[in-house]
Design brief:
mainly beta, 113 residues, seven-stranded mixed β-sheet, 11 strands, four-stranded antiparallel β-sheet, globular
Amino acid sequence: QVRLVESGGGLVQPGGSLRLACTLSGGASMASSFVMRWFRQKPGKDREWVAQMLPGGATYYPDAVKGRFAISRDNANNKIFLQMNSLKPEDTAVYYCKVNHNWGQGTQVTVSS
């Protein structure tokens, strides 16, 4: 079965950075035609979109993370990344990757002093 596995989460101080990775496995290979997205879910809240990369490489971000988050990909290694800079306590959430129809299991990011 196709699997997406997130990694790179953890505890970071406000103003710090984390780089999340999402690895595709299970018989599928990353392709330029895939739509790649990151979402997050804050405690007690609905899941929200935080980054998108369309075929062709165009990227999109909501206002809450613009200028701080960046989505990228490495097709050769079946990976998607989310670089998160200038992190704030309100960025604390479980972060999920999504490639086309497939979701990862999530990785916890906690921003706290």
